[in-house]
Amino acid sequence: MAHKVFIFDTTLRDGEQTPGANLNVDEKLQIARHLELLNVDVIEAGFPFSSPGDFEAVRAVAREIRGPQIAGLARAFVQDIDACWEAVKEATDPRIHTFISTSDIHLKHQMRKSREEVLEMAVAAVKYACRYTSNVEFSAMDASRSDLDYVVQVFTAVIDAGATTLNFPDTVGYSIPEEFGAKIKYLVDHIPNLHRAILSVHCHNDLGLAVANTLAAVSNGVRQVEVTINGLGERAGNASLEEVVMSLATRGDLLHYYTDIVTQYIYPTSRLTSKLSGVPVQPNKAIVGANAFAHESGIHQDGVLKEASTFEIMTPNSVGIKKSTMPLGKLSGRHAFKNKLREMGFYLNDEELNRVFTRFKSLADRKKTVFDEDLISLVETEVIYKSVPEHFKLAELVVLAGTMARPSANVKMEVGGHLAGPYSVLGDGPIDATYKAITHLAGSKCTLLKFAVSSITGGTDAQGEVTVRLEEDGRVVTGQGVDPDVITASARAFINGLNRLHFLKETEAVKGPKPEEL
Ligand code: MN
């Protein structure tokens, strides 16, 4: 009989610790709604004590999301656990996830505590959390580098104290699969009261082995896996949800386990997470990368056309990747447009639909065929990614460039509802000139950390998609812009980034200390 593996998603907590991936409350909610559609068992929504913004986000997720359990992270301190409970308590099934280090390296150099002291703190934290709820998870930070008999001792004690989930993290991504699996087996064989709890793992990808280690742990008795969408997370990231889930789904012949994940929502969730976090998915990424189902070799193409299973171990459909069906053109009406978006899984209200339809019409005037990818991008830039108020708005942009002209830009924009400009300036290139003009009009002091342009579909009339990363006073944001004209797309991306910086400054005065990693 197949055993269920519980999916604990930590995209909103560990995933958000990806450098540069700040998510605001609204963005976290959007991702959480997708995680609910995916049907994950637990959403770790954040680390409530770490900052007011994180507290707010966890509370918002706990209030709205009804399907999955909602967990918050808390160090083994009273004030952390209190804040965590305040944030999660309105969930259908709230969970407190508390943790402490168990490795001698951390005990000696970071905490300066003895094993006995740490054991006492762990038990005390779990007992304290149990006053609020019986759904308490305990993690032994840096467990994979800890003395295994000490972990057995701590786990045995915290189960007696009331913990119902025991997490064994490979915090620094140091393990290899055979070794990691053997450690799990040792725990299963030596913790006398383990039948009263579920064993969990949390693997990091520093050696590219997070998914392999996670699967090795499952084969040895683990029944909860902590994963993230697109493998986001500290440093090299966490085990990726889509890879773990599809490995179990595809190799049921060898791995007799199942998850409750609705796999058709994997791709939409991956795209949304990538857009909102500003962390792109590499094209050769398993399951959700742009090339994951692209067959380049003639022999492979021939095979797939005759019978997909010749070279495809799973179907693109099974993870929610739909082939372009009926492209739209400038004669397509509002009704066809609305139906098309429905088909693609977007439910917009009338105001949003009008906005996207207007952009679609102007796009269709300039571009012969509007593909599904163009539509997704329109919805993303007009609705999903516009989740911050538009303090800055592009009004007019005229650019001169080419081999015979010194590049220059003339820009008019709205700043806080007032027209600013026109302002003309020369630059090293048309984008440089445009950015100089916008920076001047917006009165911004930000630094451009990254600028990337890609094309959404093939062809010279394809839309350009620009991603920028901006930094100001330690705040890092991502901006996105799309347009058939790459200079305009660049301007939109920059202004989108400025709006996000402005919003960050307005909403959270100072982001709290960076959460300790688990
Ligand atoms: Mn972690």
Question: Can you summarize this structure?
Answer:
The protein is of the alpha/beta class. It has helices at residues 25-38, 52-64, 78-88, 104-111, 115-130, 148-161, 177-190, 210-219, 241-250, 266-277, 298-306, 334-343, 350-366, 372-384, 430-442, 486-507, and strands at 3-4, 6-9, 42-46, 69-75, 94-101, 136-141, 165-170, 198-203, 224-227, 257-258, 392-400, 408-415, 418-426, 447-455, 464-472, 475-483. The site of manganese (II) ion (MN) has 8 residues, from loops.
Structural description of this entry:
There is one protein chain. This protein is α/β, with parallel strands linked by helices and 518 residues long. The chain folds into three domains: 3-277, Alpha-Beta Barrel (TIM Barrel), CATH 3.20.20; 322-385; 389-507, Alpha-isopropylmalate synthase LeuA, regulatory domain (Double Stranded RNA Binding Domain), CATH 3.30.160. Helix content is 40%, strand content 20%. The chain has helices spanning 25-38, 52-64, 78-88, 104-111, 115-130, 148-161, 177-190, 210-219, 241-250, 266-277, 298-306, 334-343, 350-366, 372-384, 430-442, 486-507, and strands at 3-4, 6-9, 42-46, 69-75, 94-101, 136-141, 165-170, 198-203, 224-227, 257-258, 392-400, 408-415, 418-426, 447-455, 464-472, 475-483. The chain has an eight-stranded parallel β-barrel, surrounded by seven helices. Residues 509-517 have low confidence and may be disordered. It binds manganese (II) ion. The site of manganese (II) ion has 8 residues, from loops.
